[in-house]
Design a protein that fits this description.
Helix content of chain B: under 10%
Mean pLDDT of chain B: 92
Structural class of chain A: mainly beta
Low-confidence stretches of chain A: none
Radius of gyration of chain B: 13 Å
Radius of gyration of chain A: 14 Å
Shape of chain B: globular
Strand content of chain A: over 45%
Helix content of chain A: under 10%
Order of helices and strands of chain B: EEEEEEEEEEE
Largest sheet of chain B: 7 strands, mixed
Oligomer: heterodimer
Strand content of chain B: over 45%
Order of helices and strands of chain A: EEEEEEEEEEE
Distance between the termini of chain B: 36 Å
Low-confidence stretches of chain B: none
Number of strands of chain B: 11
Chain lengths: 112, 113
């Protein structure tokens, strides 16, 4: 199956700092999503971005499908940004109907 | 409000018992999914359903069963055959096109005593 690798595994920041999270995947994809998992376990949709660039406030994401990676940018981080960030993909073709394959996540801690 | 609800939020089970987790959505989505999350890990797919009265096994279906009698509902039964059922269970839904965005419910934490 498709492999999804996220880096770094852990990231510690001071409030106000910027950061970049990376997601590498091993095969062609037709769906790529970024999620933030809050302390209560809720998965919050950040971006649906199988290709291209999107921005939403302080967050932006870029997926370069031909090179099989995606980046999530967080600017001017806040303590409420803390949590686990997941990248998940659906492999193109085959029998992967709707199956999201998740990376291991990046644990972000933002200190005041 | 449109969304996905899961109940209960917390569930405790004795070994040897079957338990059923509820998942309901009012987003008019055709496809629904069940994922399992273990501590420090990403999510893994248990079962999915593209349409009413149809469902398929995911990567870790052993010890689980599902039904899809209504478009809005996709309950998951954790049977006594599941060797290590303690985990966080999340339900998701999407419109039927296979590559559309998935949305998740708040999850159920199951603990086997």
């Amino acid at each position: 199956g498709i492999q999804v690798e996220q880096s770094p595994p852990d990231l510690i920041l001071q409030e106000g700092a910027n950061s970049t999270l990376r997601c590498n995947f091993s095969d062609s994809v037709n769906n790529l999503q970024w999620f933030h998992q809050n302390p209560w376990g809720q998965l919050i949709n950040l971006f649906y971005i199988p290709s291209g660039t999107k921005q939403n406030g302080r967050l932006s994401a870029t997926t370069v499908a031909t090179e099989r990676y995606s980046l999530l940018y967080i600017s001017s981080s806040q303590t409420t940004d803390s949590g686990v960030y997941f990248c998940a993909v659906v492999r193109a073709g085959g029998t992967s109907y709707g199956k999201l394959t998740f990376g291991q996540g990046t644990i972000l801690t933002v200190h005041p | 409000d449109g969304g996905i609800t899961q109940s209960p939020k917390y569930l405790f089970r004795k070994e040897g018992q079957n338990v059923t987790l509820s998942c309901e959505q009012n987003l008019n989505h055709d496809a629904m999914y069940w994922y399992r999350q273990d501590p420090g890990q990403g999510l893994r797919l248990i079962y999915y359903s593209q349409i009413v009265n149809d469902f398929q096994k995911g990567d870790i279906a052993e010890g689980y069963s599902v039904s899809r009698e209504k478009k809005e509902s996709f309950p998951l039964t954790v049977t006594s055959a599941q060797k290590n059922p303690t985990a966080f269970y999340l339900c998701a839904s999407s419109s039927r096109t296979p590559y559309n965005e998935q949305f998740f419910g708040p999850g159920t934490r199951l603990t086997v005593l």
